[in-house]
Write a structure and sequence with these properties.
A mainly alpha (643), B mainly alpha (99), C mainly alpha (271), B: mainly alpha, C: mainly alpha, two-stranded antiparallel ribbon, 11 helices
């Protein structure tokens, strides 16, 4: 890693997009194929039950093939021809405000496309086996395809408005998939929660889009990012903070992290695909994509770092306390995305590393989630790790593949996480000692809770419930896990070979060599020592000593971590209760004041009418009296006029 | 003779008739009061005919008589009908059309 | 009659003045009497007097044709119609002069007086030159001819329309007065059965037969000497109390019937 070019490159002078032609005119197919798959599966209904899952796999796989073709075509292009733009149609054209529905394929979106379609296809394949007993498997694949299409639209959009469409599509697909087993109350509630919390983040994105329109008069990437230097810093700060809010919602960053843990109520492939490998990385993508804004707004960048650091530690702490294997992994996801966000907040030093970590995290986290799904598959859908133990003997393949992911996430060389995480730690130290320490401590805690998880599941002693007969999963599930495990093992090494990924992304994200006080090798050594210490602690506590089948009471921190560090409690106290009071007060206000005014007017008129009604006595003579009075008045008027 | 006297008389008769309409409850008497008012106006017409020295006023008075005759016929028929159903000729009893 | 008109018309200012004041007094008195009298019949008679007075005034105002028409149409036809209807409707509680609507009488009188004052003031403030009808009445050879010339000349359309109005009124009156029979007319048998069932199968008593009162409104005496309303026609029953029964007389009759000696009425002492 000593071969970084010393020069600082910023992405401000972003490469000009080339109109897509030739092979690149296939860009739309990336989105189109899974979208067509989703439409067929969801509109076709029960008729597609028989082949639906394979159609879903096919759509995703075809999209991956197209992505691979495009990747190689892009490699063949010179460096300034790699940013391709495909014009689909004019979406909005009002006066000078034009929003074309354009797709943009550059190195950044290419990376995402490959990750989404690649990991997505593997998870599709895995789901064929995992969901084989589900009545609604076809619908599941429809939703998965919809998700893939939305996510691809998100990363391929050439303007923030189209990105917003994909952003919302991802939110919808996530809602549908978390609530896929809607008959379970936890799933139904979790899907609603995810949707609502995401909506809070979406407000941030829509605010950002509006601010961009106000500031730049445009929402396209070219129109905003290339002209970011023209805007004042405060404007950019506000846009950056709004984007950060959006990223927090989608990427489950503090303070919008609460939905991710509950989202584990969805089927495990969903957790793997959406809540580990792809969707939650959308926030990181958004920040990295908007790098020009954040580069020019240091305050917003600092906010990003702070949010990332907080989430990193929160996720790690929560991951230590959870007995539910999926929730422990979800805490780990929060933590790892915290790393990415933190890296993205470091500026050009970290953008490429954030994406690097994102990609390898996609590999090893999908690997581990699918492994967890495989364990659950063999354990009658039990998720409590305290009833696992010693599964390495009955699930050898799962054990091995999970082990690859385990080593990768801890950052044991030469597994993938080592390269990406170490890069981030180095970049963090170049920013400041505190930030660096947070990442190192995070790495140590990560090692501890992952060891805990791994030991409680695969090592230690049997704590199975009586009716459970663990068995290895079918091949269709094992093969995708194996591929992902392979990627977890060697992906980091390959991508980091000769700084491949950094130099690949550099034209889009810019790059700056981290400046280190210690030598690079020393840095790596320190972090490795911390990681090994954390892992050793985990093994000592959970392998050497018996694991109680019932969770011990634990200390204050443990209890807090079990309760998701009181994220829900805070939300309830700060938002839900006051919200309820507010709505109650509004109802009262509406009933009493608004309705009171309306009803009061009505009652007044009614009362007056009631009085006036009394004038209609029904007595002809009373009417005749009024007539005479009227006649007298007319006569008076006549006389006066004459006078 | 000052024709104003005829007009004063007309005015007084008209007012008495009007008050009669307002205070009497027997429909037939009310009708009589109305006839009195018509006659009072007839008197005014005839007086003005003499004042202006043309017969048009008398013609109008004649037409008023004709219309009054028709009105009495219909009015009394209505009184009869109401009396038949309500056993009363009081105008106050026919007060269903009210609040 | 024509001489009478001539007298009235040609008697000059003094004669006209006398005629006016006499007739005006009668007319106002009749009008007030109509409004104030308890009985509708009396009201009808009062207004007949008013109309006669007005007829005379018409003649005095050089309108002899209208004067005659007034007598014929109003006192003849219209008043007869009123009387017929009064006979049918009979005596009614509405004849009472007690006011039932609060404030109505006071308001009516105040408003009537104000209205009269207004009219009088309006008339009093007017100034005009009296032209007289002599010229107009002689153009066509007389008042009737002059009116005929106008009615069948300039006003012929209005005249034709009034004819339509009169026919419509006649038709309307017939429709209103017609009573639709909804049930079959009761047969003689049904009538006699109903009569037996009513508990009073015999004839109703005849009108009272006293030397002093044999009017139809006087109740008859039953054999035991008590008066009964049954002999009085229904429209008059409400006022039977007004047509009083002299209980002294009935007592004497009863005594005579019993064969006791009865002294002269004025010497009779109450026992």
């Amino acid at each position: 890693m000593s071969s970084f070019s010393g020069a600082v490159t910023l992405a401000v002078d972003a490469p000009v997009a080339v109109t897509a032609s030739g092979t690149f005119s296939l860009i739309w197919l990336l989105i189109g194929l899974p979208l067509i798959g989703a439409v067929i599966l969801l509109v076709g209904g029960r008729r597609t039950n028989a082949f639906g899952h394979w159609l879903g796999v096919l759509a995703s796989a075809a999209s991956f093939v197209v992505a691979a073709v495009l990747f190689f075509a892009m490699l063949a292009q010179p460096l300034d021809g790699r940013t391709q733009r495909q014009h689909l149609f004019d979406w909005i054209s009002v006066g000078t405000f034009k929003v074309p529905a354009d797709l943009r394929l550059d190195q950044l979106s290419m990376t995402f496309v490959l990750l989404i379609t690649g990991v997505g296809t593997l998870i599709h394949l895995y789901s064929v086996g995992y969901m084989s007993h589900d009545r609604d498997r076809r619908k599941f694949f429809g939703y998965l395809n919809l998700f893939v299409a939305s996510m691809l639209l998100l990363v391929l959009a050439d303007n923030y408005l189209l990105l917003y469409v994909g952003w919302e599509g991802v939110g919808l697909a996530s809602y549908l998939l978390i609530g896929f087993w809607y008959f379970k109350e936890t799933a139904a509630v979790a899907s609603k929660k995810a949707f609502i919390v995401n909506r809070v983040g979406d407000v941030g994105l829509s605010l950002a889009v509006m601010l961009m329109f106000v500031t730049f008069g445009s929402v396209t990437f070219d129109g905003v990012l290339a002209r970011a230097s023209q805007a004042s810093e405060s404007q950019l700060t506000w846009i950056g903070l709004a984007l950060l809010l959006a990223a927090c919602g989608k990427s489950a960053q503090f303070p919008l992290q609460s939905w991710l843990l509950d989202a584990m109520a969805g089927p495990t492939p969903v957790s793997a695909l959406i809540h580990a490998a792809t969707m939650v990385t959308a926030g990181v993508y958004l920040i990295v994509r908007s790098n020009a804004i954040f580069d020019a707004a240091p305050t917003a960048q600092t906010a990003v770092i702070v949010i990332g650091a907080i989430t990193l530690l929160m996720g790690a702490v929560i991951g230590c306390a959870k007995d539910d294997i999926k929730k422990a992994l979800a805490g780990s996801t929060m933590s790892q995305i915290g790393y990415m966000v933190l890296a993205a907040g470091l500026g050009p030093v970290g953008y490429a590393f954030a994406i690097f970590h994102l990609v390898v995290h996609g590999f090893f986290k999908a690997d581990m989630f699918l492994g967890a799904g495989s364990v659950m598959h063999g354990m009658n859908d039990q998720v409590n790790m305290r009833r696992y133990g010693a599964l390495r003997t009955v699930m050898v393949a799962t054990w091995l593949t999970f082990g690859a992911g385990y080593l990768a996430i801890m950052g044991i060389p030469p597994f993938a996480g080592f390269f990406s995480k170490d890069n981030i730690i180095e970049a963090a130290f170049s920013r400041g000692i505190l930030v660096g320490l947070v990442t190192v401590v995070g790495a140590g805690v990560t090692a501890f809770y992952m060891s805990r998880l791994f030991v409680m599941t695969f090592h230690s002693t049997k704590r199975w419930t009586e009716d459970v007969h663990p068995h290895e999963s079918p091949m269709i599930m094992v093969v995708p896990i194996a591929i992902l495990a392979l990627l977890s093992a060697i992906g980091g090494l390959v991508l980091n070979w000769n700084n491949a990924i950094v130099s690949w992304l550099e034209p889009v994200t810019g790059f700056q060599e981290p400046e280190l006080a210690v030598s690079k090798l020393g840095m790596e050594g320190i972090s490795l020592v911390v990681v090994l210490a954390g892992a050793a602690l985990g093994w000592m506590l959970y392998d050497r000593r018996p694991v109680p089948e019932m969770a011990p009471a634990g200390n204050l921190l443990t209890r807090a971590a079990r309760a998701d560090l009181y994220g829900d409690a805070v939300n309830e106290a700060v938002f839900m209760r006051p919200g309820q009071y507010l709505t109650r007060w509004l109802v009262w206000f509406d009933n009493r004041v608004v309705d009171g005014a309306v009803n009061g007017v009505a009652a007044t008129i009614g009362g007056l009418s009631g009085r006036a009604r009394r004038l209609q006595t029904g007595f002809t003579r009373s009417y005749a009296l009024s007539m005479l009075g009227g006649a007298a008045l007319v006569a008076i008027a006549l006389v006066l006029v004459r006078l | 003779m000052n024709p104003n006297n005829y007009l004063y008389l007309s005015a007084v008769l008209f007012s008495i008739g009007a008050v009669g309409v307002l205070v009497r409850r027997n429909a037939i008497v009310v009708f009589m009061c109305i006839e009195l008012m018509l006659n009072a106006s007839n008197l005014a017409f005839v007086s003005f005919a003499r004042v202006w020295g043309n017969l048009d006023g008398q013609v109008i008075a004649f037409f008023v008589m004709v219309v009054a005759a028709a009105e009495v016929v219909i009015g009394l028929a209505i009184v009869m009908t109401i009396f038949r159903t309500r056993r009363s000729a009081s105008v106050d009893e026919a007060n269903l059309l009210k609040y | 009659m024509s001489t009478l008109f001539a007298v009235v018309e040609t008697s000059g200012n003094v004669g006209e003045t006398i005629v006016f004041w006499v007739c005006a007094f009668v007319a106002v008195a009749g009008a007030l009497g109509m409004v104030l009298s308890h009985r509708a019949v009396h009201s009808a008679l009062f207004i007949a007097a008013t109309m006669m007075a007005l007829a005379v005034l018409y003649v005095a105002l050089s309108a002899p044709f209208l004067g005659m028409a007034q007598v014929v149409v109003y006192t003849g036809a219209v008043m007869m119609l009123f009387l017929f209807v009064l006979m049918i409707v009979g005596v009614d509680s509405s004849d009472s002069l007690v006011e039932t609507i609060k404030g109505q009488r006071l308001a009516a009188i105040v408003l009537g007086l104000a209205f009269a004052a207004l009219l009088v003031a309006a008339v009093g403030s007017a100034t005009y030159q009296v032209q007289g009808l002599d010229a107009a009445n002689t153009v066509d050879g007389g008042n009737v001819q002059g009116l005929a010339h106008l009615i069948f000349g300039r006003y012929v359309l209005a005249f034709e329309v009034t004819s339509a109005l009169l026919i419509t009124a006649a038709l309307g009156a017939m429709v209103l007065a017609h009573r639709e029979r909804h049930t079959p007319r009761p047969s003689q048998r049904e009538q006699s059965e109903a009569r037996v069932r009513s508990g009073y199968p015999q004839n109703l008593p005849g009108p009272g037969v006293y030397a002093r009162h044999n009017a139809v409104g006087t109740p008859a005496l039953l054999p035991d000497g008590t008066p009964t309303d049954l002999s009085v026609p229904e429209p008059l029953r409400g006022v039977s109390a007004v047509v009083g029964v002299d209980h002294e007389d009935t007592a004497r009759v009863i005594a005579l019937a019993a064969g006791r000696a009865v002294g002269p009425a004025d010497e009779e002492t109450e026992s």
